[in-house]
Design a protein that fits this description.
With 499 residues, the chain is an alpha/beta fold. The protein is 30% helix and 22% strand. The chain has helices at residues 22-32, 49-53, 56-73, 79-82, 89-99, 106-114, 174-178, 194-205, 225-237, 304-310, 344-362, 397-402, 418-423, 456-464, 469-472, 485-494, and strands at residues 12-18, 39-43, 117-121, 123-126, 131-135, 141-152, 156-158, 186-190, 209-213, 241-243, 248-252, 269-273, 276-280, 282-285, 289-291, 331-333, 382-384, 389-394, 407-413, 430-436, 441-449. Strands 1, 2, 3, 4, 5, 6 and 16 form a 7-stranded mixed beta sheet that branches. Strands 17-18-21-20-19 form a 5-stranded antiparallel beta sheet, sandwiched between helices. The protein has a 4-stranded parallel beta sheet with strand order 10-9-8-14. FAD binds at residues 60, 336.
């Protein structure tokens, strides 16, 4: 990581961004583009953040070869070519390393400086209104001021629950799993959410014996119930062991070493849950995320620290992503830190709005516009790149009913489509839409199956646009494609099967 930034001569910028993940990059750009305003990104690790180096990019680099091989094994004409060959794990890891640029963020810094955004290295803390103190690697402290705005984009870190013996065992967290350099023979994964299920997919695909220990009744419990069922069924069919409704009581690892990121951290580990236990070579904790808000100086700004503590550490914001309880329209929080949606694409969406708000306020323009106001928390598209994929947006049927809405859920088996039968043999999948019975508009959609991520944006557009089912009837899907699922769901809604 080259130190190519602390020599910047000024100590005052118009916009100061704490955190260089994609939302931080985007907000700096949107707040300054087309103007003479200045911006600086302060980053203590790598510019590009968790997504570029430890989450989205490396995880998808590991998952894609597994998906390609699985499709090939289920497509006659190609099937005989791959046979029972396994992945070339070394090649997969080399490509992963290339995609994350071997943890060199030079290209990200070059992009920032190329569009006029400065970069300063160090740990940043608020030190009063529009004031930030930056501690560099050598311990020196620099005070930086913002004329217009300070934007917090410090993200989250992996949560390690207070399970007896767990922290002492030096478990893997998501960063180790995505950047593994040593592949364990056996692994136990504590958790049953997105990170746990994606990691289980690539680890099993690389030949690891996987045991999942999830505390919820289903995998991917925030999705429609059939999503977790289909993923769990496929996991078990591929030799994984899945324990649900299981609470880990203790972890024991007699021999612990100082191995680095992605290396096995010691000898065998025993994980005990209820009346059961499993002994493995490594344990991966995928039990949620903790907001990185403890050491960023919130206590120097009114009651912000107390408010964050009341929200599990998340910094609460308004519809313009201004931090609540702070006067003067100068402090903002975007991305995972505000807890609205812990997804890179949603953080970048927030950054576009926040940057436009900062620009509008600087130029005396109205901020109450569609471009500068968050549309709400319900329309959040997400793809979980498991085998099979899970793509969802909007409300589940249970969540819609809990909100007091009158809804109807409609499901259809994706394997019945001509498009999926052409795509591959042995296709297993399901789709569901949630319909507001008062308006006939979509509230939610879920697709489970190979490559269903391609269906998600159409559903997102329909929900954001409040398109009615009567209007969707005239959006004719091409034949024979998987998009024909839309026609089948509409037919099922308007002509439900007789009981």
């Amino acid at each position: 990581m080259p130190d190519n930034s602390n020599s910047t001569p000024t100590d005052t910028w118009d916009v100061v961004v704490i955190g260089g993940a994609p939302p931080g990059e985007n907000v700096a750009q949107y707040a300054t583009q087309g103007s003479d305003r200045t911006a600086v990104i302060i980053e203590k690790e790598l510019v590009g953040g968790e997504c570029s180096f430890w989450a989205c990019m490396p995880s998808k680099a590991l998952l894609r070869p597994i998906s390609v091989l699985d499709n090939a094994r289920n497509l006659p004409g190609v099937q005989s070519l791959v046979g029972d060959h396994s992945l070339d794990n070394a090649a997969v890891l080399r490509r992963r390393d290339e995609i994350v640029h071997h943890h060199d963020d030079t290209s990200q810094v070059d992009w920032a400086t190329g569009v006029g955004i400065d970069v300063v290295r160090g740990h940043a803390r608020l030190a009063g209104e529009r004031t930030v103190e930056v501690t560099a690697a050598d311990g020196s402290v620099r005070t930086i001021h913002a004329r217009l705005a300070v934007v917090l984009d410090t993200g989250t870190t992996a949560t390690v629950p207070p399970i007896p013996g767990l922290r002492e065992a030096r478990p893997w967290i998501s960063r180790d799993a995505t950047n593994m350099h040593e592949i364990p023979r056996r692994i136990a994964i504590i958790g049953g959410g997105v990170v746990a299920c994606e990691a289980a997919t690539w680890l099993a695909g690389m030949g690891v014996q996987v045991t999942i220990i999830g505390s919820a009744p289903k995998l991917l419990a925030r999705n429609e119930e059939f999503a977790g069922d289909l993923v769990a069924d496929n996991f078990r069919a591929k030799g994984m062991t899945v324990h649900l409704n299981a609470r880990v009581d203790a972890v024991s690892r007699p021999q612990v070493n100082d191995a680095g990121e992605g290396l096995i951290h010691g000898g065998e580990v025993t994980v005990t849950f209820g009346d059961s236990s499993v002994t493995v070579d490594e344990v991966l904790v995928a039990a949620g995320r903790t907001p990185a808000s403890r050491d960023i100086g919130l206590e120097t700004i009114g009651s912000v620290a107390e408010a964050a503590a009341a929200h599990r550490g998340f910094v609460t914001v308004d519809k313009h992503f201004g931090v609540e309880g702070v006067d003067g329209d100068w402090l903002y929080a975007i991305g995972d830190l505000n807890g609205k949606a812990l997804l890179t694409h949603m953080g970048k969406y927030q950054a576009r709005i926040c940057g436009a708000v900062i620009a509008a306020r600087a130029e005396g323009r109205d901020v109450q516009t569609p471009w500068t106001t968050d549309s709400g928390d319900d329309v959040v598209p997400q793809v979980t790149f498991t085998d099979p994929e899970v793509a969802s947006v909007g409300l589940t049927e249970a969540a819609a009913r809990a909100a007091g809405l009158t809804v109807r859920g409609v499901e259809y088996d994706l394997s019945w489509l001509a498009g999926t039968s052409l795509q591959r043999d042995n296709y297993v999948g399901r789709a569901k839409i949630v319909v507001d019975e008062d308006t006939h508009a979509l509230l939610g959609a879920t697709f489970v199956g190979p490559d269903v991520s391609d269906l998600l944006h159409a559903a997102t557009v329909a929900i954001v646009g409040k398109v009615t089912l009567e209007q969707l009837w005239h959006a004719v899907p091409s034949y024979p494609t998987v998009s024909e699922i839309w026609l089948r769901l509409l037919e099922t809604y308007f002509n439900p099967p007789s009981s």
